[in-house]
């Protein structure tokens, strides 16, 4: 019981040139924040609803619903009272007509907006391709 053991020191472990310290917390020096500074001005983020791709995708959905909702309300008027479509009569039918008309109007407005954006892009592209005029 009286024996004592000699404890030899252990070389510290290193990871990527940093010394690993055993214990609860590992202290590793972080690299300088200057290395991670963005180059140039930040990119401007365009909201999804203003992107051309989104507008071109939503047009067929608005057209389809703008036609289908009033059609469903019209079918409800001419169906039998025992039909499931009878639930769409009355006030709900009027709402379907109004929402369908609104969706058709929004689809037309969005189509005109997309046409305007495409025309602006084409004009900008033509101006870039044309380059500076002849020098005299």
Features:
two-stranded antiparallel ribbon; 2 helices; mainly alpha; 136 residues
Write a structural description:
The protein is an all-alpha fold. The protein has a domain at 48-130. The protein has helices at residues 52-78, 91-130, and strands at residues 14-15, 18-19. It has a two-stranded antiparallel ribbon with strand order 1-2. A hairpin with a 2-residue loop joins strand 1 (14-15) and strand 2. Helix 1 packs antiparallel against helix 2. The N and C termini lie far apart (106 Å). 7% of the residues are buried.
The SSE order reads EEHH
- How helix-rich are the residues, as a percent range? 40-55%
Structural classification: mainly alpha
Record field, number of beta strands = 2
- Cross-sheet strand order for the largest sheet: 1-2
Radius of gyration over C-alpha positions, nearest whole angstrom: 35 Å
Give a short synopsis of this structure.
This protein is mainly α and 136 residues long.
Topology:
Elements: E1 14-15, E2 18-19, H1 52-78, H2 91-130
Antiparallel strand pairs: 1-2
């Amino acid at each position: 019981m009286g024996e004592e053991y000699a404890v030899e020191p252990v070389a510290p472990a290193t990871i990527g040139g940093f010394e690993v310290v055993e214990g609860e917390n590992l202290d590793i020096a972080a690299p300088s924040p200057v290395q991670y500074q963005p180059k140039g001005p930040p990119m401007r983020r365009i909201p999804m609803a203003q992107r051309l791709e989104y507008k071109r995708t939503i047009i067929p959905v608005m057209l389809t619903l703008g036609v289908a909702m009033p059609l469903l309300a019209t079918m409800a008027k001419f169906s039998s009272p025992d039909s499931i479509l009878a639930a769409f009569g009355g006030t709900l039918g009027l709402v379907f007509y109004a929402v369908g008309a609104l969706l058709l109007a929004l689809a037309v407005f969005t189509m005109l907006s997309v046409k305007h954006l495409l025309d602006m892009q084409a004009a900008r592209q033509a101006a870039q391709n044309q380059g500076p005029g002849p020098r005299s």
